[in-house]
Design brief:
Helix content is about 75%, strand content about 0%. It is an all-alpha fold.
Length: about 270
């Protein structure tokens, strides 16, 4: 049976994803506020990939070469996924069913234009679930810390942005609130599904298998942070200081979480 932390992580990720899809109807999401959030999450994902995932992956694969190889494979996989499906739009949009528009409306989309974004996010959120399951599996039983905490926070803070993007594009395309809610619920369920399936599947797998999956996930996190989220900082020179501080805070948080995950990091040298 999956451990308590993993079950709790799955529940909270679903709640966060659902909230992200409902945000456009609840509050005005200004451009600056959104970009600060994106920069912070980018820093957190970057730090989690390097301080947590890659370190644990090298431990479980017993060689840094194997861990780096799978990290590159994960990075390239996500890179071509982003290029092919052109997803990850993190901008507030105008909802045709709302009386008051948001700060930065986008042009109306065709009814099916959100499909590529939804497919991209479906694959992405499933990989996030695998990353979560692999992190908890890799860090369980090592020290007195909280297994998978860093990966969980990165996924938790990123999922609302993903859900917001899909729902916002559907709203711009004229889809009903009911349709948007159903898609949001479906996407929210994929992350815990991926996490739980990996946990059960990895139970019969080797340590190298867990480490390789974790390294692949590290590559995915690196790609999302470097190729998709961080360019926002370069394109928004008017808020560069604010976004840079948010980025550094995300990296700093990821590093501090090392001390909450137990003493496994210090045991690698032995």
């Amino acid at each position: 049976m999956p451990p308590g932390p993993l079950i709790l992580y799955c529940v909270l990720v679903v709640v966060a994803s659902l909230i992200g899809g409902l945000l456009p109807g609840w509050m005005r999401l200004g451009h600056t506020r959104m970009q600060v959030m994106v920069s912070f999450v980018a820093g957190l994902m970057l730090g989690v990939a390097l301080f947590h995932m890659l370190v644990h992956a090298a431990h479980h694969t017993h060689t840094l070469d194997t861990a780096v190889l799978w990290t590159v494979i994960g990075l390239l996989t996500m890179f071509f996924l982003i290029r092919t499906l052109d997803f990850h739009h993190h901008e507030p949009v105008h909802d045709p069913e709302e009386h008051e528009g948001h700060a930065h409306p986008i042009a109306p989309q065709s009814p099916l234009s959100w499909a590529g974004v939804a497919v991209g996010f479906a694959l992405h959120t499933t990989i996030d679930g695998i990353a979560l399951g692999a992190s908890v599996r890799a860090e369980s039983g090592h020290g007195d810390g909280i297994p998978g905490l860093g990966t969980f926070l990165a996924v938790l803070l990123h999922k609302p942005l993903d859900a917001l993007a899909v729902v916002a594009l559907m709203a711009a395309g004229g889809w009903s609130k009911r349709s948007r809610l159903l898609v949001n619920v479906g996407l929210a369920a994929l992350c815990p599904l991926g996490a739980l399936l990996f946990w059960w599947g990895a139970g019969a797998g080797s340590s190298v298998f867990v480490g390789s999956a974790l390294a692949f996930s590290a590559g995915v996190f690196l790609c999302v942070s470097l190729a998709d989220l961080l360019p926002e900082l370069q394109f928004h020179s008017h808020d560069r200081l604010k976004l840079s501080v948010a980025l550094l805070l995300g990296v700093a948080l990821a590093y501090c979480l090392v001390f909450l995950e137990g003493d496994m990091h210090h045991g690698h040298a032995h």
